[in-house]
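FAQ: What does a ligand-bound record look like?

Like this one, built around pyridoxal-5'-phosphate:
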Amino acid sequence: MQFENTLNFAKQMDRKDPLKKFRGRFIIPKHKGKNVIYFTGNSLGLQPKTAAKYIQQELTDWAKFGVEGHFKAKNLWYSYHELVAGPLAELSGAKKEEVVAMNQLTSNLHFLFVSFYRPEGKRIKILCEAHAFPSDQYLLESQLKFHGFDPAEALIEVSPRRGEYTIRTEDILSAIEKHKEELALVFIGGVNYYSGQVMDMKTITEAGHQAGALVGFDLAHAIGNICLDLHNWNVDFAAWCSYKYLNSGPGSVGGAFIHTKHHRSELQRFAGWWGHDKNSRFKMEKGFSPIPTAEGWQLSNAPVFSMAIHKAALAVFEEAGISRIIEKSNKLTGYLRFIIDGINNKSNVLEILTPETAGSQLSISVHRQGKEVFRKLISKGIMADWREPNVIRVAPVPLYNSFEDVFRFGEVLLKSFT
Ligand SMILES: *Cc1c(COP(=O)(O)O)cnc(C)c1O
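The answer part, i.e. the structure of the complex:
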């Protein structure tokens, strides 16, 4: 695609954008009375305008029905989570019975580890990426200790090579091969939160299985952002949060994927009544009998208010279609890359760490006065994200960002060096 660094070109791209109407579906924060340029949808997606209406529906039904809302509300609370399974399956490349919205991300991972991290004999190790998101690091460290292992020995972290920013797939594969006798689990972030690197989940899953390990992914930065095909990739399990690209509100309900092949297995799990067979749930009898789908991993009844926003947000994805969203994302982030490369030809202080991949986010290393540059961006109404020591992460989100946003960001960025 031939890009141009002009306002005219950006506006022309916006006019031709088949998803342009979706920007109007979100509430964009203001800076000095004008819309900000919001490039932090990878941290917290913007509020869909329908969110308030969806919550109001549940407040109204609560007022009207009290406890009977479970079976009388317009959207039955009893089965509320079922309403979002379809769109989640679409976004994750799963069968509907393989996904469930529940709990939150880190808690889901701990619960999934009960089933999928089953160290036995020599096979106790977990392989992950170096510098995983801190919550994932704590997850792994505490899980290993819980089972009585020393993380220094039982955790294998694969790093980028010296002087590189991203992890080579071949290095992950050779680490799997090297530890294949001792590997219980491969657990990796599908898109690295720091570099934006998209992992080759299909290849990693195959290699993990060949080594006799199970394979899971943290999809916090992947779902709603890149194309996922979890079922066909044969991934064992995955989990995500809904407040980043899924625009479902701060701390909103998380989600999990469990491959069908495990639904009727004898895997251990921590149980709760919402995972119990629906027909006998209210008999309140002894003896846990799990629903033979991902729902069987649920513990508690659905947090309806956060689910309501989730439902509102997923409806936007359904309408826009994930393939069209990704198509626009490639162009939008491609344009951002083009603009930054152009600035760099003049200033030579920027370096894009993110490899040429399909995700929205670019992580830009600023080799001089990074913090000052970042402050200038903020003062001009650009919301980006700062990561020590010198990285600015920017994520133009196809549902609500425009090519004009990217152009204007470039203008401000160039000026912030001079
Ligand atoms: C955002 C993020 C989290 C956050 O976890 P919560 O349990 O939702 O607070 C965890 N892991 C990764 C990789 C993330 O990007």
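Follow-up question: can I read anything off the structure? Yes, for example: The two ends are 30 Å apart (CA to CA).
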